[in-house]
Amino acid sequence: xxxxxxxxxxxxxxxxxxxxxxxxxxxxxLVVERxxxxxxxxxxxxxxxxxxxxxxxxxxxxxxxxxxIFSDLQQCAIQSAEPIIxxxxxxxxxxxxxxxxxxxxxxxxxxxxVTRITDEKIITPRGEYGYRYLVxxxxxxxxxxxxxxxxxxxxxxxxxYQLPGNFERMEWHLNPNLFANGYAWIFPHGDSASVGVYxxxxxxxxxxxxxxxxxWAGKYGIEIDDRRPQAALINYDYRGWHFGxxxxxxxxxxxxxxxxxxxxxxxxVSGEAAAAKIxxxxxxxxxxxxxIKKHQRHTRLLEASxxxxxxxRILMETLVVALRLGLIHFSALELGVD
Length: 338
Ligand SMILES: Cc1cc2nc3c(=O)[nH]c(=O)nc-3n(C[C@H](O)[C@H](O)[C@H](O)COP(=O)(O)OP(=O)(O)OC[C@H]3O[C@@H](n4cnc5c(N)ncnc54)[C@H](O)[C@@H]3O)c2cc1C
What we know:
Blueprint: E1 2-9, H1 13-23, E2 29-32, E3 46-48, E4 60-64, E5 66-70, E6 75-79, E7 85-88, H2 90-104, E8 107-109, E9 116-117, E10 121-124, E11 127-136, H3 143-147, E12 155-164, E13 171-173, H4 176-179, E14 183-188, E15 192-200, H5 206-220, E16 230-235, E17 242-243, E18 246-248, H6 264-279, H7 287-305, H8 309-324
Helix pairs in contact: 1-2, 1-6
């Protein structure tokens, strides 16, 4: 059996950021990815702007200085001299991160699902590999999380279509009648846009949510035709990230926002935090605790708005007023931390 200092399961943003940071310091790292290709992921590709320094310009599809918000009673455009959100293509992001991790010296094996985990090794159809440290970066249905005995009760569901066309505005549609405390979005990319919906699993079944997305899109004049939707769960049930010689990062750790479903940036930050802890067990990363605090605020806001129709409406309208008046900054709705 081949041994690695650290094995990372999953080559998403969380796993690859961890791999690049460890391999860059000379650690022998193996990343095991079940998909044959790194990158493709059901995702709208929105990145908080204060995370933009992480990404080189060639990955950025569009940059937005305004956010258009629609609620039952209000329509507004939040403007800022600084960019508020940018969009990236997940395939290009994945390939860029893969290249970075491999250049640093990480071994990344694709098309290789991990089928079993034990205290010393992982088992795949192509063989067994021993580890000293194990990092679960395997997304919202994480096998490492299950291996650690952690449940996953708080999840959201995101459904979207990547529609061709030149969409100009980044839009958020808060409509409690249709999406409860979730929302529908339009996130423009180069020559297409992600048009989709996010809501907590507790508020609607994926089938109902999809029907509501179609209803909303039809009324809004967006043609979906007979395209196939793409959907995935989003885990925001955070219960810790460091468990002895095992770590959970990104969606596996439940670090996506329950409020918005955003999780790329928190995957990268937590991947880097896990690497820093493995390299130096005394390391106290500052970014991740701040991000976790923000994540918890999002969960509390989500819980407050899930208690009933009128309460949800009042909260949403208050939120839009506060954004319009500049009482809160748009970044409060994002997990990005400086
Ligand atoms: C519809 C939708 C829209 C979204 N929009 C946004 C957005 O605009 N902005 C944003 O920030 N976030 C968004 N998200 C969330 C975002 O996609 C995730 O939070 C992010 O990808 C998490 O990164 P990760 O590295 O933790 O996990 P993932 O990107 O899910 O990567 C996990 C990897 O692990 C692999 N894996 C899983 N199990 C195994 C196994 N047993 N063996 C080997 N490999 C395995 C998977 O194949 C995958 O490649 C959206 C999600 C959805 C569903």
